Amino acid sequence: MIPVERHQQILALVAERGVVSIAELTERLGVSHMTIRRDVQKLEEQGAVLSVSGGVRSADRLAAEPSHQTKTTLYNAEKNAIGRCAAQHIPRNSCIYLDAGTTTLALARELLDRDDLLVVTNDFMVTNLLMEASDCRVIHTGGTVCRDNRSCVGESAARSLRHLAIDIAFISASCWGPRGLYTPDEDKVTVKQTVRDVSSKRVLLSDSSKYNKIATYLALPLSDFDILITDSQLSAAARSVLREGSWELLLAE
């Protein structure tokens, strides 16, 4: 059986059952465990499936970014814990970037008593909070306005970042997994990739509900990050996978 035929059978089984074990796929397709692992890796790279401990399941695909208003009602305790954890990793007199999102907004709330920071952001809610309630210096990127997300995106936002030297970038994710972080919005990709390029250190901030989900665009691979900060609800299987990487995994409580 050639690889394409195996891939079709794997996809058919996953579509029918939701989750299929590696052992069952090995037996049904009559190939080695390593061959099935390679097949699953290839399908995962295509966004067709997701690996789980001991098996494979259908991919949870995010079709569109939830609005800022919707996100403010979700996983607030986890986001606040992540914000507190992240704030502990910001040295005095740093230039930091806060990506758009309610988790980075939770981090911004932890910085209100800081007067030593230069904060760069594309998020209007972060800008307003720091402008009104802190002594931080603030730079907003400008750019194409994304109303639902209360932020700026696109090439014009990215262009304003290219002349900066950022110490630590705190980057949000619509969804993420072992391969990297994803977004359904192409205009966000350029901004995230640009801030990666101009930052000395990169930190992913994302709650565990977004883990092992995908969207249309792979914005950044996990290997671009120095630290991953998520919440303590992350599954044991996910922890095991992520601790094999070159980054530091922190679980906020």
Could you characterize what this model shows?
The protein has two domains: 3-58, Arc Repressor Mutant, subunit A (Orthogonal Bundle); 68-251, Rossmann fold (3-Layer(aba) Sandwich). The strands form five sheets. Strands 7-6-5-10-13-16-17 form a seven-stranded parallel β-sheet, with helices on both faces. The radius of gyration is 20 Å and the shape is elongated. The protein has ten helices and 17 strands. It has 253 residues and is of the alpha/beta class. GO terms for molecular function: DNA binding; DNA-binding transcription factor activity. Residues 3-58 form the HTH deoR-type domain. InterPro entries: Carb_Metab_HTH_regulators, DeoR-like_C, DeoR_HTH, HTH-type_regulator_YgbI-like, NagB/RpiA_transferase-like, Tscrpt_reg_HTH_DeoR_CS, WH-like_DNA-bd_sf, WH_DNA-bd_sf.
In short, what is this structure?
The protein is an alpha/beta fold.
Present the secondary structure layout.
Elements: H1 3-17, E1 19-21, H2 22-29, H3 33-45, E2 49-52, E3 55-58, E4 60-61, H4 68-71, H5 76-87, E5 95-98, H6 102-109, E6 118-121, H7 124-133, E7 137-140, E8 144-146, E9 151-153, H8 154-161, E10 166-172, E11 175-177, E12 180-183, H9 186-197, E13 199-205, E14 213-214, E15 217-221, E16 227-231, H10 236-242, E17 248-252
Parallel strand pairs: 4-14, 5-6, 5-10, 6-7, 10-13, 13-16, 16-17
Antiparallel strand pairs: 1-3, 2-3, 8-9, 11-12, 12-15
Helix pairs in contact: 2-3, 5-6, 6-7, 8-9
